[in-house]
Each structure stands twice: as structure tokens, then as C-alpha cells.
Backbone:
């Protein structure tokens, strides 16, 4: 299958993409065909019946032509019926998830995507799937409305708080495909982007294994530094003292922190741990309680590593 995009369309990477493209092309060419006829008619008649210098009596117009009227009613009716039936069939295929689909849980929150796989692995901003297998996405949001959009798969579906939305796709080729949020969801909406990585069955199985022992061979601080990026802490917390959406990690540990309710404490390991798992418990003065909980996104060893990493960013 053609993997490169065209002037009008991105690369096509799913089983449904060619169907969507064919319908889109049909509608486009029908529109172009009739636009040309209408514009040619406008130009032709405005020249033919332009106002002349000699005064002429207006001729009596024709009353009507039954044949012409039936034609201009039936032809558009036929065209829109073709578009309706074609579109409805494709829409049904998009809506009905194949029975043998692999189900992956998608969670959207300001401002990143997280994925939970049936085998227990999780990932952030990178959806890893095997090629040639239907994938069902069970999606929900932790805050506002987001929209899961993968142009190469011709797939876009809103992700809502307090309910599930479901969509599916089957990737037809390996590769990396752009994932974006297509519903304005706040100041970092445009940064809510990721990848869908389509791999072979074998590579998918390997990835599941390796993601379960991601920290192997790393010190806790090194592992924490990796998680800081891969779990998107980096979106809101800097490590150089600058303010993004939230306090910087630089120099937090071992120093006094003031909270919105007027209380203060010296940041220790328990404070860091609590702030990761239950961020609303203590909100640093001057900030909004916008951080989502990482309760389901981090294993114990990962929380330990992040705490170790944040500690390493403070001079004793
Ligand atoms: Cu999430 Cu826009």
C-alpha cells in the first residue's frame, strides 16, 4: 500500500483509510465537475445576454421544461443517495469493533495520553500496537473533552470525562504515525501530541516484556530521569528552576514549601510520594490543583525512582 501522503491527504496506514479516501475523492470530483459547469454557465450567459447599446424589447421567457426539471431533480438525488449509502457503510465499519480486537485503554488528561495494555504494561504518549490486528480503544478523560486523532488512520474520536467512547483501527503497515489532540483543551492543547508505533507481532511481544522491566540496569536516579520524560512530568515541571505550569523540581527536596491553605513543611520523601499519587492533598501556594493523579500510571519502583531523581536535583 502507498505509504506516502499526497498534496491533499496524509499517508494511509489503516484498513479504513482507503475507503475514506475514495469517498472523499468522489465527493471532491463531483463538486469540481458541477462547479465547472455552473461557472462556465455564468460566464457564458453573462456574455451572451449582456446589456447592448440598442434598446431591445425583452423577449417573453419560456414557461417551463418538464424534462429539464426532472433531470435537475433526479441527478442530484442520485448523487446524494450514492454519497449517503457509501458514507453510511463506511461509518458502520468504523463503528462496529471486530470481535477479536485487542483492547487498549486510553486515558486523556491535561495534557498527555496514557495507554494501558491488556497484559498490564502502560505507556505515555506512545501507543504501541501490532500490525495487521484490529485494535479496540476504550477511551475516557480525567478532566475536559479531548479528541483522539490519528490522521494516517483517518480516525478521530472525542474522549470525554465520565463516560467511555470506543473506536478501533487495524494498522496495515509498520511505522510511526502522528497522534494529536483535536479538541481545544487548555493552554497546552497543542503540545498534547504523541505517536502510534506500529510494529510486528514479535516486536510487540518484546516491547511488552521490556516495558515490564524498564528500570533494569539503571540506577534509581537514571531511571527517574527517564520516567521524568516518558511519563510527561516534563510537560509541567522544569528541572532548571523555571516555571511552566507547576513548581520546578530544582531544589524542592529538603527545602520549605508553602501551601495554598497557609501550611508549610520541609519537602521530604513522603511529601514527594504523596504529591505524585495524590497531588490535590497539598497544593503549593500560588498554583492551581491541575495535576492528575499518577496512582494507576506508576508502579512502586517507578515512584521510588522519581523520588530519587527529584532528590538528586537538590544540593544537600
Ligand atoms: Cu487535549 Cu486538546
Residues:
Amino acid at each position: 500500500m502507498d505509504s506516502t501522503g499526497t498534496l491533499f491527504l496524509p499517508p494511509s496506514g489503516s484498513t479504513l483509510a482507503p475507503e475514506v479516501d475514495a469517498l472523499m475523492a468522489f465527493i471532491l470530483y463531483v463538486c469540481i465537475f458541477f462547479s465547472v459547469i455552473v461557472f462556465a454557465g455564468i460566464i457564458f450567459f453573462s456574455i451572451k445576454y449582456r446589456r447592448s447599446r440598442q434598446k431591445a424589447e425583452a423577449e417573453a421567457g419560456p414557461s417551463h421544461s418538464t424534462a429539464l426539471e426532472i433531470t435537475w431533480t433526479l441527478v442530484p438525488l442520485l448523487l446524494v443517495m450514492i454519497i449517503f449509502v457509501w458514507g453510511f457503510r463506511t461509518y458502520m465499519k468504523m463503528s462496529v469493533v471486530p470481535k477479536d480486537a485487542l483492547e487498549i485503554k486510553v486515558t486523556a488528561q491535561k495534557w498527555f495520553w496514557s495507554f494501558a495494555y491488556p497484559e498490564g504494561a502502560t505507556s505515555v504518549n506512545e501507543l504501541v500496537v501490532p500490525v495487521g490486528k484490529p485494535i479496540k480503544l476504550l477511551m475516557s478523560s480525567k478532566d475536559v473533552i479531548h479528541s483522539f486523532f490519528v490522521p494516517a488512520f483517518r480516525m478521530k474520536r472525542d474522549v470525554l470525562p465520565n463516560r467511555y467512547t470506543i473506536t478501533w483501527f487495524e494498522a496495515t503497515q509498520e511505522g510511526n504515525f502522528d497522534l494529536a489532540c483535536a479538541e481545544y483543551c487548555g493552554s497546552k492543547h497543542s503540545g498534547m501530541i504523541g505517536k502510534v508505533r506500529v510494529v510486528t507481532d514479535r516486536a510487540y511481544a518484546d516491547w511488552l516484556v521490556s516495558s515490564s522491566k524498564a528500570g533494569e540496569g539503571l540506577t534509581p536516579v537514571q531511571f527517574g530521569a527517564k520516567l521524568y520524560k516518558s511519563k510527561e512530568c516534563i510537560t509541567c515541571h522544569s528541572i532548571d528552576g523555571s516555571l511552566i505550569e507547576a513548581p520546578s523540581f530544582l531544589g524542592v527536596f529538603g527545602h520549605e514549601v508553602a501551601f495554598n491553605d497557609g501550611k508549610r513543611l520541609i519537602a521530604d520523601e513522603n511529601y514527594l510520594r504523596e504529591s505524585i499519587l495524590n497531588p490535590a492533598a497539598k497544593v503549593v501556594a500560588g498554583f492551581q490543583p491541575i495535576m492528575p493523579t499518577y496512582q494507576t500510571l506508576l508502579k512502586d519502583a517507578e515512584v521510588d525512582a522519581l523520588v530519587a531523581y527529584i532528590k538528586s536535583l537538590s544540593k544537600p
Notes: The domain at 7-43+68-213 is CATH 2.60.40.420 (Immunoglobulin-like). The chain is about 35% helix and 20% strand. Residues 108, 111, 146, 181, 183-185, 189, 192 surround dinuclear copper ion (CB under 6 Å).
